[in-house]
Amino acid sequence: MADCIEKYQIFDLELSGTKSGNPFTEITVTAKFSNHAQSIETKGFYKGNGIYGIRFMPQEEGSWSYQVHSNDPSLNGVTGTFLCTPPQPGNHGRVCLKKDVSPKEEAHFYETEEDFHFCYEDGTRFQPFGTTCYAWINQVEEVQERTLRTLAKAPFNKIRMCIFPKFYTYNTTDPERYVFPGNPRDGFDFTRFDPIFFENLEKRIRELDALGIEADIILLHPYDRWGFSKMTREQDIFYLTYVVRRLCHFKNVWWSLANEYDLLPHKTVEDWEAYARVIMGNDPYGHLRSIHNCIPLYDHNRSWITHVSVQRVDVYKTAEMVTDWRSQYRKPVIVDEAGYEGNIDFGWGNLTGQELTRRFWEGCMRGGYVSHGETYIDRSETIWWSHGGELHGDSVARIGFLKEILGELPEEIEPLRLTAKNHEENWDSVCLHKEDEYYLYYYGFSRPLYRNYTLPDKKKYKLELIDTWNMTIRELPEVYEGKIRIKMGARQYMAVRMKEISGPLEI
Fold first, then answer.
1. If residue 101 lies in a helix (H) or strand (E), which one and from where to where?
2. pLDDT tier at 264 (50, 70, 90 boundaries)?
3. Most exposed: 46, 57, 94, 299, by fewest CB within 10 Å?
């Protein structure tokens, strides 16, 4: 009887082959997977101890067959079959660009709101609420386990994480294992990989998937004292090829080419473009791809970049830039570093919980997304932003509250565009709306005693006042139409939600 693999999960085949020489560089292995309609080739990898891996993530149900090709005679010609079964509840496949999953009936060459959002492979909405935990897989096992327990209770569905360890202020400890065999004293063998390191990495990616969390994997970064940031172009390509061939079959993987690419000055734009081609050439599924800046933004108009991943570009302006970035790049925008709630000495890492929450609301109301980070130096022996462990800040619960509210948004929601007719009332606020049916206004650090609104003609609405910091929603008893004034209480961080009434009110 053929093996059964759930749709979007991994068919994982292990084969025994040669151990002699350096199988990481000398042995090639590929497999062609076929069903009644298509054939897909995946590239295998060496796992160590004479074991080779062949993986495949089926995206169609039914019977599949495969045949292995290799320059190792013991692997070449292996065949087999398996059955792809329907996905279980909660298994929605990869996260993709919404426009690629649910395209308009006719091709369009103008901007639509679908250009700026994500959904799962099966069409289910995905709104990224990320966090940053750079080096959590490089910590001791107990910290890794604590991190997962914390994530299980947190609202985050995406985590930014490195493969290489991080050397930076508050991060100076050598990890137990590395991507490559070796150690800082004796050096590293850049022609081989440490199988135990990758087994743990894969274990953690699977555990994140079980929690419904996307692994936004940062492939290269500059915070290094081991030599990984200064590998040659050939060494980078060798590393990227192996990583992508091994990890691309996990449905919850995203590729971030670099964290702060511009702090790697010895790598040129031509290098990054070549690395993007390596990733795309070894990932048959087309996982999401980005590159992240410190100061100058990369050219996110490049066709290989699926979405904009940015860091704040000003001491004060952060999520406010989402409107401009959407217009400039016509892609989903994630402010992956809007600053961190915490109390370290760096300005980027001592925001209040209120300010980080405000930045989340501001970015999301402009049609983008924002990632969380936390840098408290005095709450435990670990700092979440790099080590993981526990969360201590005030913003997490409020981000969860925002996630619930945005999860209730109707489809086809979009930022309100200013016109000559509505400019006077709306120039100083941000708003999401669906035509005249639904409005969600946000006022951030402003604290109006009241706001005036001119509602669409011949429409009636129910209104709610949302206190985004105290996490309360108060429905107002009246039915509203025409020109109205709503008492706001001179409080900061307030939002107003309006829903059109159609038909008689329910009592």
1. helix 98-101
2. very high
3. 299
Run of H or E including 249:
none
Mean pLDDT of 104-114: 66
Measured distance CA(442)–CA(496) in Å, rounded? 7
What are the pLDDT digits (tens) for 110-141?
578 999 999 999 999 999 999 999 999 999 99
What integer pLDDT is reported at residue 507 of this predicted model?
40
* Cα distance between the two ends of the chain: 58
The secondary element (H helix, E strand) that includes residue 367 is none
Cβ burial of 237 (10 Å; 0-12, 13-18, 19+) is middle
Question: Residue 496 contacts by C-beta under 8 Å, 6 or more apart in sequence?
Answer: 439, 440, 441, 451, 463, 464, 465, 466, 486, 488
User: How do beta strands 130-132 and 369-372 pair?
Assistant: parallel
Residue with tokens 């992508």: 244
For 416-429, what is the mean pLDDT? 84
pLDDT digit string, tens, across residues 161-180: 999 999 999 999 999 999 99
Here the tokens at position 426 are: 């709306």
Do β-strands 414-415 and 369-372 pair in parallel, antiparallel, or remain unpaired?
unpaired
- pTM over the 0.85 mark: yes
Q: What angle is formed at CA 77 by the lines to CA 240 and CA 69, rounded to 5 degrees?
A: 25
Rama region for 359: left / alpha / beta (φ>0; ψ in -120 to 50; rest): alpha
Selection from 200, 315, 293, 241 nearest residue 44 by Cα: 241
Closest CA to 338 of 496, 175, 321, 23: 321
